Amino acid sequence: MQTYCESLTANRRLKTRTVKIGDLLLGSEHPIRVQTMTTTDTMDTSATVEQCIRCIEAGAELVRITAPSKKEAENLRNIRDELRKRGYTTPLVADIHFTPNAAEIAAKYVEKVRVNPGNYADKKKFETLEYTDESYSAELIRIEEKFTPLVILCKSLNRAMRIGTNHGSLSDRILSRYGDTPEGMVASAYEFIEVCEKNGYFNLVISMKASNTLVMVQAYRLLASEMIKRKRVYPLHLGVTEAGDGEDGRIKSAVGIGALLIDGLGDTIRVSLTEAPEFEIPVARKLIDLTRLTNVLPIPEVSEELPFNPFSFERRASVSCATIGGGQVPVVIADFSSNTSITPANLYAAGYVYSPSLDKWNIQDAAADFLYLGNQSIDFELPGTLRVLVDGKTWSLTAQNIPGYFPVISIRDRHTISSQHVCFCESSPEELSEYLENLNPQDVLVLASSYDNSVQWMRWAFMLLKQANKANPVIFKLTIETDNEETFQLEAGVKAGSLFVDGLGDGIWLTAPNQPKTTVNSTAFGVLQATRLRTSKTEYISCPSCGRTLFDLQETTANIRKRTSHLKGLKIGIMGCIVNGPGEMADADYGYVGSGPGKITLYKEKEVVRKNVNTMEAVDALVELIKEHGDWVEPISESL
User: Fold this and answer.
1) Average pLDDT score over the chain
2) Residue 296: which residues within 8 A CB-CB, separation 6 or more?
3) Entry pTM
4) 510 CB contacts (<8 Å, ≥6 apart)?
5) Are the C-beta atoms of 543 and 580 separated by less than 8 Å?
6) Cα gap 240→291, rounded to integer Å
7) Cβ atoms of 1 and 310 closer than 8 Å
8) What is the mean pLDDT of residues 227-232?
9) Among 5, 316, 386, 542, which one has the highest count of C-beta atoms within 10 angstroms of its own C-beta?
């Protein structure tokens, strides 16, 4: 079952081939390389060169540049020459969609070419097509004929190639046979890999990008498993496509990329943020550092099947205890134990707004489900939906008769409280085997580990639970002490998100003494949203921009957020061009896509509903479209 990685208990890189990209070596024997992509017009040589330099000086080891047509491909020569003239030798990558002739031109000038199997030889029309085995084979022959010239050219010039599959741009042919699935993504890549191998060309890097972190992680694991079976393992380029900006983009990237790095998958990464490309580099570096495990406690072997299916998402079945588990959405626990006193106003940070004049609570969409008070007490009435955790001794002395209050106690001391009560039993995964029998069927298990390999340890704990036939709900408690907000978001995304994407866990408890409680709360909900387990806000599937982008993506994304951020559960795709349009935003409810200079096309799901909307009017038109389809609600003021 673990054939997709070297080990599930030790963080070891998957052994891959070494790929040469100019003078850069990439693969498991070499450091994980960081890259980004320019957002300038490729025909603007000066602007592209300057942006390349900013990215290189920020730490980019590869820089990708779009080449949407032959003229941009030709201009890569001028960009390369100017960079070399100024002393920059960082390898360049040409990004190709739809235009094989541009790829063949670009290969003459840059060290690596990226092709998308979904649109290199196919035009996506969202048609449902029927194929016999014979007609399907004929299509593969057509693809081979179209792709082979580039393969032969790259081989002769010692160029590298990335075969970059995207979840949202699978060909109609692949969709007809495999559906919109991770299996289809792997099959799409192998159509092109097999052509390369047939021609004795192996200087390949492979990617399986998706905006949906669950799909992305499953696709990379399936690909790794297939490569291991075929005994030819290529380096992996990791990325969550269209991750977005700000907190959302960072957490989503941490969840998807982090879950794979934790298992030793990944040889180069790109964090796709809707921000200036040089801002992506430090985020990528932090992700690599967070998954470079140093404080490690070895994990004993357990002769038990994995407690999850790495290739298909399914939540672990657990019993329902105190509104936790039993198929309910994962809960968020807000930690207020460090407060010297707690007032109604403090609970704003946990998503609760109190109006003294009305004596009324307004509960936000991202409102914590439990408050942990430690040994503190409160002297005001809480909203009826909010439950409280206190330390075991405090609960026994003052709170055991208060409805909605529950004790938190070490699993080793579980016997000190009557078994008729629900307890939140805290344990490190490594001590769980010694005290597992103390856990009563109605208890909630709180897992906390101080080791860098906490993800592996917590998986091991779920193996023990499965072995003992215990279905208790499990909360992940993470203590993160950094005072850097971005690092905090990334670490939470990696350590909790890696487990949630495997279907493990029923809640998240973040303790962060050096972060504002508002940040802690929004991060907890952000991790659950990024793993598609709980929706608390609008989701923006926003591309990071490139030379094909036809409007100011950062400004437009900010404007759309301002108008629609209250529409909980809605997915809005914001795409710079048709390449990243209806396909890449895959499962968005609404789409805002650049279709020409100053023009926008609006989508309802994958259907075009309005074409050639002036950019000055397009955000208003998007809001009207949402209203027309009954998905609009008026924003509610926080003041009561």
Assistant:
1) 92
2) 11, 451, 452, 453
3) 0.92
4) 335, 478, 480, 492, 496, 520, 523, 524
5) yes
6) 17
7) yes
8) 97
9) 542
Beta bridge partners of 389: 372, 406
For 541, phi then psi, to 5°, come to -95, 90
Tell me how far apart the alpha carbons of residues 630 and 632 are, in angstroms, rounded to a whole number: 6
Average of per-residue pLDDT across 266-281: 94
User: Which position has the token pair 């192998």?
Assistant: 190
Give the pair of three-digit tokens for residue 339: 């407060």
Helix (H) or strand (E) holding 425, with range, is strand 424-427
Reported as a single tens digit per residue, the pLDDT across 448-500 is 999 999 999 999 999 999 999 999 999 999 999 999 999 999 999 999 999 99
Region of 126 (left: φ > 0; alpha: ψ -120 to 50; beta: rest) is left
Burial of 570 (0-12, 13-18, 19+ CB in 10 A): buried
As a three-state string, the secondary structure of 371-392 is EEEECCCCCCCCCCCCEEEEEH
How far is Cα 78 from Cα 70, in angstroms, rounded to an integer? 14
Flag the least confident range among 338-352, 431-445, 498-512, 597-611.
597-611
Residues in CB range of 459: below 8 A, 6 or more apart: 8, 9, 306, 307, 308, 499, 502, 504
- Return the percentage of the chain with pLDDT > 70, whole number: 95
Distances (CA, A) of 77 to 92, 138, 154, 162: 10, 36, 16, 20
pLDDT over 70 (residue 99): yes
Separation between Cα atoms, residue 418 and residue 391, nearest integer Å: 15
User: How far is Cα 173 from Cα 118, in angstroms, rounded to an integer?
Assistant: 9
Strand ranges (E), 51-144? 62-66, 92-96, 112-115
- The pLDDT of residue 640: 45
Burial of residue 329 (number of CB atoms within 10 Å: 0-12, 13-18, 19+): middle
Name residues whose C-beta falls within 8 Å of residue 136's C-beta, 6 or more positions apart in sequence: 173, 177
Contact yes or no for 173/121 (Cβ under 8 A) = no
Distance CA 420, CA 474 (A): 19
pLDDT, one tens digit per residue, over 358-371 is 889 999 999 999 99
Q: Identify the CA nearest to 64 among candidates 56, 463, 527.
A: 56
Listed as own residue / partner, the contacts of 285-288 with beta carbons closer than 8 Å and 24 or more positions apart are: 285/34, 285/59, 286/486, 286/487, 286/490, 287/253, 287/254, 287/257, 287/258, 287/261, 287/490, 287/494, 288/32, 288/34, 288/261
pLDDT in tens, 215-224: 999 999 999 9
Q: Determine the 3-state secondary structure of 211 from DSSP.
A: coil
Instruction: Report d(CA 537, CA 514) in Å as an integer.
Output: 25
Residue 601: how many other CB atoms lie within 10 Å? 21
